[in-house]
Amino acid sequence: MDSSRPQLSNHGYLPRDGRDISCSQLYHALREVYNLSIPLTIVLVYGTFLILGKLSLSSPHLRFSDLHKLSQHNKVEHDASLVHANASPKDAKWAPTQVDPELLDQLMEHAEDAAKDHDGLTPTDFGKIRALRNRVALVNGPLSYPHRLLAWGESAFLIAVLGGPEERIRPEVLRAFVGEEKLPVEEGWVRPSKKVGLDTVNDIRKRVQNAQSDWEKAHLDSSPEA
């Protein structure tokens, strides 16, 4: 779930240049800023190191030499990101790290519509968004199941930390977080008052996944994952 990490650097919770970041720094920043539970933070931090091939018994003091390594294609990063273009060519080692303006505009259209209809983006909305994004972005084949879990989990994480008790993300909060890569404090966001745990994120993830499946079943010509 790399969508939360540029914000931590941009606000000084991690080194602003994104370099030489210790496992401990990342762990404490995630817990402090987003009020994550210990188990969820361990999964996010050590899971990231494991996926990147950096976790081993011979490396007790784990560090990121550069946050840019999170953009290594088909590791933590995957095709069909909500606001980042696919890696090109498809076997490229690195994926784009800059927010794609067109993809951001598309996401914000969904957010504005959801805000008018029911006060913000919900898990059901993210299921539809993921289905539509996959339809366009996965013409060369579906994501692997682990990357599908990451994609659903990223949407769930956004809802859990940005959506408040009502699980609804307001457009201005979403734009600040994913578009401007900043913590949306000026937009009225506050740190979750209740600890965000594995069970919470997994429950939302299942609802996003089910909503995507329901949308695809209702539109049988939809995505490569249908």
Automatic annotation (TrEMBL):
Residues 1-206 form the Heme haloperoxidase family profile domain. One of its GO terms (molecular function) is metal ion binding. Belongs to the chloroperoxidase family. The chain crosses the membrane at residues 36-57. InterPro entries: Chloroperoxidase, Chloroperoxidase-like_sf. Keywords: Heme, Iron, Membrane, Metal-binding, Oxidoreductase, Peroxidase, Transmembrane, Transmembrane helix. PROSITE patterns: HEME_HALOPEROXIDASE. Pfam families: Peroxidase_2. It comes from the Eukaryota. This is Cloroperoxidase. It comes from Sistotremastrum suecicum HHB10207 ss-3. Its cofactor is heme b.
